[in-house]
């Protein structure tokens, strides 16, 4: 079978390897059809000093496919059934796993495609408990966006920020994979959506997607425009994943008691926060990473109900690197998908 391996920093190789053995008890074998790309893949490709991993490593952290074979004792799946896979090797035994807080597993073995071999290969054996069925009406291309892009967004908006119908939300980087997902989900809930983008072409696309107000952060200060749009009251929720210098601007966009939820720091990981502002304004800041299996199931249900991911580009497996370049270029609007 084919497997796409990272053999050194910034060096990928498509290799032929023997396929996996028959799935063991409690496992399923999945034929992978689509991999979604995320910034995590860009970090992994570039190499990160602190990441504990051994090369070569099969890349791909988010994927959809169909059941190819069943191990003993697995009765909840059928051969040919469409599925997606949870991308972190959780233990399934700790209190967090038992309570369905999978992304807080106390014994997590690593993230697939980053610390452990990932999904960019024809066949993979997975514990059946980490495999989620895809509704018939959802394509595998769209489903491939559920485990990270949609799941992360679902966890941020609903488990952490507890976004409610009718609230106003500022979504940063509305053209990104999770930014587009946040716009789609918040609009479906009946929220007012303000979003930031880096060029006018993306502004048009964000409006077409349903955003009520779009701010080009390169030509306007988003915090000033947001305060004006909300009659100086501020927004209920800020959806952050940029960090850097804009983080304090994001806090200034919140109304008193507002919630900021963040899952990324693409513009820089370190910020200085005014603590007086934090407690006097009673802001709530949530760090969010990954999602639960339930978030993935809920994401797929939303897709079946018409809340679809925005797909920017599709590339074949051999052009995985071109997909990463597209993601790195910041020209992207929506998700980059690698097809098998
Ligand atoms: Zn666990």
Structural notes for this entry:
- This protein is α/β, with parallel strands linked by helices and 340 residues long.
- It has helices at 39-46, 95-98, 140-143, 146-160, 177-188, 200-209, 222-229, 246-252, 275-280, 293-304, 320-328, and strands at residues 2-8, 11-16, 27-36, 57-58, 63-70, 82-85, 123-127, 131-133, 168-171, 192-197, 213-216, 235-240, 254-262, 284-287, 311-316, 335-339.
- The strands form three sheets. Strands 3, 5, 6, 7, 8, 15 and 16 form a seven-stranded mixed sheet that branches. A six-stranded parallel sheet has the order 11-10-9-12-13-14, sandwiched between helices.
- Strand 13 (254-262), helix 9 (275-280) and strand 14 form a beta-alpha-beta unit.
- Helix 1 packs across helix 11, helix 4 packs across helix 5 (177-188) and helix 4 crosses helix 10.
- The N and C termini lie close together (12 Å).
- Bound molecules: zinc ion (ZN).
- Residues 90-91, 93-94, 96-97, 105-107 line the site of zinc ion.
Please tag this protein with its features.
binds zinc ion, 6-stranded parallel β-sheet, alpha/beta, 340 residues, globular, 28% helix, 11 helices
Task: Itemize the secondary structure elements and their pairings.
Layout: E1 2-8, E2 11-16, E3 27-36, H1 39-46, E4 57-58, E5 63-70, E6 82-85, H2 95-98, E7 123-127, E8 131-133, H3 140-143, H4 146-160, E9 168-171, H5 177-188, E10 192-197, H6 200-209, E11 213-216, H7 222-229, E12 235-240, H8 246-252, E13 254-262, H9 275-280, E14 284-287, H10 293-304, E15 311-316, H11 320-328, E16 335-339
Helix pairs in contact: 1-11, 4-5, 4-10
The chain binds zinc ion.
């Amino acid at each position: 079978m084919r497997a796409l391996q990272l053999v050194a920093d910034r060096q990928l190789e498509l290799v032929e390897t023997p396929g996996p053995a028959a799935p063991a008890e409690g496992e399923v074998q999945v034929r992978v059809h689509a991999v979604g790309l995320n910034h995590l893949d860009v970090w992994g490709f570039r190499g990160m000093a602190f990441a504990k991993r051994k090369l070569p490593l099969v890349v791909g952290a988010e994927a959809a496919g169909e059941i190819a074979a069943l191990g003993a004792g697995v009765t909840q799946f059928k051969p040919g059934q469409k599925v997606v896979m949870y991308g972190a090797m959780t233990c399934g035994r700790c209190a967090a796993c038992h309570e369905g807080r999978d992304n807080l597993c106390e014994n997590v073995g690593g993230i697939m495609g980053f610390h452990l071999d990932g999904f960019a290969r024809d066949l993979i054996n997975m514990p059946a408990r980490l495999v989620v069925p895809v509704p018939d009406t959802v394509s595998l291309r769209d489903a491939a966006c559920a485990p990270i892009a949609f799941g992360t967004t679902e966890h941020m908006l609903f488990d952490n920020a507890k976004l409610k119908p009718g609230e106003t939300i500022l979504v940063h980087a509305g053209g990104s994979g999770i930014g587009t997902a946040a716009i789609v989900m918040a609009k479906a809930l009946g929220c007012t959506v303000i979003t930031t983008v880096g060029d006018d072409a993306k502004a048009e696309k964000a409006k077409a997607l349903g955003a009520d107000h779009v701010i080009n952060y390169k030509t306007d200060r988003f915090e000033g425009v947001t305060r004006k749009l909300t009659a100086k009251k501020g927004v209920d929720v800020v959806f952050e994943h940029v960090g850097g210098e804009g983080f304090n601007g994001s806090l200034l966009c919140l109304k008193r008691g507002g919630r900021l939820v963040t899952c990324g720091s693409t513009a820089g990981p370190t910020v200085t926060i005014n603590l007086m502002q934090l407690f006097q304004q009673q802001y709530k800041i949530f760090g969010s990473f990954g999602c639960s299996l339930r978030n993935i199931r809920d994401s797929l249900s939303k897709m079946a109900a018409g809340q679809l991911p925005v797909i920017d580009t599709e590339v074949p497996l051999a052009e995985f690197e071109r997909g990463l370049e597209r993601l790195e270029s910041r020209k992207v609007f929506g998700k980059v998908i690698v097809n098998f």
